[in-house]
Amino acid sequence: MSKFQENIKHLIPRPKTPVVKPPMYRSIYTESVRRTYKSNNNLHKTMGYAEVELDPPSQFLKKHTRKEMRPFVEINKTKCCARKSIQRPCDGATTNASKKLPTKTRKNIRQTNIIDVIRRVPPLPKHRVQDTRNGHIIVLNEAGLEPTYVSKKNYGKTPSYIVKMYKEKKMAQLMETERKRAVKPSLRYLPEDERNELLNGLKTNWAELHKEFLLLPMLTDTVPKMKRKTMLEKQLNNLEKDIDLLERNPSIYVCQDV
């Protein structure tokens, strides 16, 4: 039958047959693994304990602070080669059989070097960093990139010369304060009667100068007239300032006469 021909059988939808899946695989060790996982056995066996007491910040890790265990080497006492000394009698003297000359022993340098090498502590590895993918290596201590001053005894402390300078400065300030206290005050309080007497005298002088200023001619066409007028105005202004100062300030201190 061609695909372009219509069939009545295809008009009625056919029910889909359900796909039956096989049961999911379950291992026989599932329950034992679950029980072992929940039992919390050997939790710190690989990574250690979860909470470890840390050292305080003052006890930070310092260089050359770990304990160096030197290997124990048992030294066997070996007979060193000794050259026998030949005793020769001195001229004009009899040889004494009871007296023997001391023998010279040679030092076994090879054995000494072997013992020194065995007992020598191996050097610590250098703190190196590789900064490029081509293998370029930088030694931090030699390049000045590793902090070395924090391990010094005087790190974070004020230098002694600065402490001495502060003490000298403080002593100088105390001596200056004591000297100022010992010196008598150079000011004295101006009594009310002296203040009034001074104020009246200033007002009298101002009145006399004002009278002279009013007697000046109206036309100041010469230099002497201009100078006199300017001088009187200046004196009047100074007197007015002094009078205003005394009137505004009832309490006044003046310098003592030396």
Q: Strand order within the widest sheet?
A: 1-2
Calculate Rg over CA atoms. 56 Å
Q: Look at the helices and sheets and give the structural class.
A: mainly alpha
> Could you list the spans in which at least 5 consecutive residues all have pLDDT below 50?
79-86
Gap from first CA to last CA: 144 Å
- Beta-strand residue percentage: 5-15%
Say what oligomer this is.
Answer: single chain
Shape assignment: elongated
Helix count from the secondary structure assignment = 6
Taking the sheet with the most strands, its summary is: 2 strands, antiparallel
What's the mean pLDDT score? 81
How many beta-strand segments? Answer: 6
What level of helicity do the residues show?
25-40%
Order of helices and strands: HEEHEEHHEHHE
Organism: Aphis glycines (Soybean aphid)
Protein name: Enkurin domain-containing protein
Keywords: Cell projection, Cytoplasm, Cytoskeleton
Domain Enkurin: 162-254
General description of the model:
Helix 5 runs antiparallel to helix 6 (223-248). A two-stranded antiparallel sheet has the order 1-2. It has a two-stranded antiparallel sheet with strand order 3-4. It has helices at 30-38, 109-119, 140-143, 160-182, 192-214, 223-248; strands at 82-83, 104-105, 128-130, 137-139, 187-189, 253-255. The chain is mainly α and 258 residues long. It has 6 helices and 6 strands, in the order αββαββααβααβ. The protein has a domain at 188-255. This is Enkurin domain-containing protein.
